[in-house]
Structures are given as C-alpha cells and as structure tokens.
Amino acid sequence: MVEFDDLDRQILDLLLEDARRSFREIADEIGRSAPTVSNRVDRLRELGVIRRFTLDIDRSMLTTGEQSLVVARVQPSAAEPLADALADDEAVEHVLRGVGGTVVAKATVDTSTLDGLLGDLSEAYPDADWSVEPLVGTRWDPHLGVTGGFGLVCTVCGNTITEDGVDVEVESGNRHVVCCSTCAADITEQYERLADAE
Amino acid sequence: MVEFDDLDRQILDLLLEDARRSFREIADEIGRSAPTVSNRVDRLRELGVIRRFTLDIDRSMLTTGEQSLVVARVQPSAAEPLADALADDEAVEHVLRGVGGTVVAKATVDTSTLDGLLGDLSEAYPDADWSVEPLVGTRWDPHLGVTGGFGLVCTVCGNTITEDGVDVEVESGNRHVVCCSTCAADITEQYERLADAE
DNA sequence: CCTGAAACGCCTCCGTT
DNA sequence: AACGGAGGCGTTTCAGG
User: Fold this and answer.
1) β-pair partners for A131
2) By the CB < 8 Å criterion, does B33 face chain A?
3) What's the whole-model pTM score?
4) How many other C-beta atoms are found inside a 10 Å radius of the C-beta of residue A134?
5) A150 touches chain B (CB under 8 A)
C-alpha cells in the first residue's frame, strides 16, 4: 500500500504552518483521531515526504546573520556536481538548482569568508558566470503547491502512484516509492549493479 | 532585559535539527530544566528570532511538486519592491534578495503557470534581466551561522545588543529590539511620524 | 532567571471494529 | 485503515530561592 490522499495534504498544510501543533488539534481539524494523524505523520517521514521538522529563523536579528547569496550559471550538465560541491560546504545552508544550469546557494557567512570555497569552484568551473552578494532579505511562506492535484510520483518513470504502488527497500536502508512492479524491478537492479561496482 | 546567549544558540541548534524534539530532551542536553527551555523558546518566538516551526518537504515526491526558479537582476533600488511583489503571489514560497539587486524566488508552480505574474513584473521592471527555469533539485541543511560570535543586533544602528538593550513595543503590536535608549527613541519617533502621515 | 513539584494535556500502544 | 481507552511522557504553572 502506497498512497497519498487529501488527508495527508491537509496534515502537511497544518504542519507547514506550525510544526509543533499537537496531533490532537490536527485530528480535530481534519475530523479524525489523534492516532490516525500520528500514523500518517510517521508514514510521511518514512517515505521521505517530510524530510525534517525545523525552524524558520530571522537571521537578520542575529550577529551570526551575515549571509551571502551566490548565483552561478553553468552548463546544465555541470549544475548537479556544482550544486553538490556547494551543499557539501558547512557554511552553505540552501542550494537550488534549475534545469537550465542555474545554481543558487545561500550561505551563512559573509562574502569575504566565502571566498576560499568560491575561488576553488571558480577554477573547477571556468566557464561559469558567478555572482556573490551579501544577502539582505529573505521571506518564506511555507505551503504546498497551489495546483489542484496531489499524489505521489514514481521516482523511476514519473507517473502518479496509485493503489498499485510499491514501496521498495533498497539495501542501504533507503526506500523508494515506485508506481508498479516493473519500476520496482528496475530500481532494485540499478542498486544491485551499483553494489557490484564497488 | 534583552539578551541572547549560548543557551539560546544551543536551543536553536537543536530545534533546527528536529523541531518536534521535546523540551525536556533539550533541557537534559543543555543542562537546564524543561520550564527554562519553554520560557526561552517563548521569548525567541516573541522576539521574532523564531519566525515559525515548520517542515522541510521533499516536493519532488509529490505531483504538486512542479516548481520554478526565478532569478532577476534589477537596479538595487528596485530590488526590494520587486521582492515584495514576488512574495505577495500565493505561488511564491521563497524570496531571497541580495544587496546588489539580485532577487531569487522559488515558486510552487511550473514555469508556464508563472507566466502571468512574470509578464506583469517584466513590464513593471523593463530594465531587469530575468531567467525562469524548472527547479530540479533543492537541498537544505538547517543550521545557525558557522561564525563564532552570536548575539542580537540593533535594528536601528546595527550594533550588538548588550544588557543595556531595550525591547520596544510600537503601536501596531510589533516589537523591535534596539541597543540603547537613543535608538529606542529613534524608532518610536519614526513610528509616530508614520502614524501622523496617515 | 532559575528550579522542583504537581496538574494537566498529549502521544502512542493495544485491542477492537 | 481507523477508533477509543489507558498508561506514560511532556508541558506549563506556581511557589520559592
């Protein structure tokens, strides 16, 4: 059983708004019992839809708040490794990557302290077009998408997952949700090939 | 009394990692009692350091997950109104603004659905340099800054706030934290002038 | 500003439907 | 899959240092 319904969407909406809201309060809101909400939340965490419960902090109020905004444009094929390299730096908090090769990073240090990392990356990506600026304002309005539909997406073929969905546990303990047994076989094979290569 | 010490920093660190962690667990971790943690968290919320408790969601798993990355470069003076205009749209979840006039937005709709909003904004900011792409990857590693120091910053003059700090309540119910009575008078005056202008 | 005790509320396991 | 009850935590209030 792998599905994702309106109840899940409502729970996510309420938790995005206030992640410390009690399960009982959520239960009242959506017309279910607290254990149901608890079970749903557990499932959403296990599936990886909820990556973590966290805070939105106003860093402009803190002296640790010097932050930098990095925007780079590279060849689309180079975007993923660049994004990974940026994300690996401990000062980098956020990385966004567009399909066209735009990579945006938000770091929790000032621009001069970032220089070391960016110097290395500039050499590794000589064709890249870089900009680095002190970050002066961030706004965040957490919500799910505004489009009507919702559901889970197959990580193999991209189709929407229905009641035929399969929840595959690959050997590292990671889980993947796929739409059918064909995609499940696909992903299992991929992981086995990866394991053999080691 | 307005201060921000190592205890606050530790509490924020632990909550960034898991915002549903119990106050008692945090208390054990930092060697204080649960009521102390509860009081500190209340204070951090009231001060606006904690803007909200929320979730990090993996949108790539949801069919609502089509997202767009917008990067605009405008005159620095135009960046703030542009950032506000973007943030006002309900599909826009994140807005980042650099001091040099770079504005980055992350929207929870695909690029074609964004067209209406961006068409209007392109007309309003004819000198802007725009790019819009489907967003294909986001990573987020929540943490406080990596720099050593911490503390609260005066919203008037930018100095670090010490035990002389003042917590001013301006008439709208909003609060500001400033470093001294001079800055407190400044901000009160500013708000009064604003009220008179209406 | 902190603590401990106590009261109250919330979460989760379990048995049932 | 979901519910109600029960036991055990978690949170908050309060008195006292």
Assistant:
1) A71
2) no
3) 0.83
4) 14
5) yes
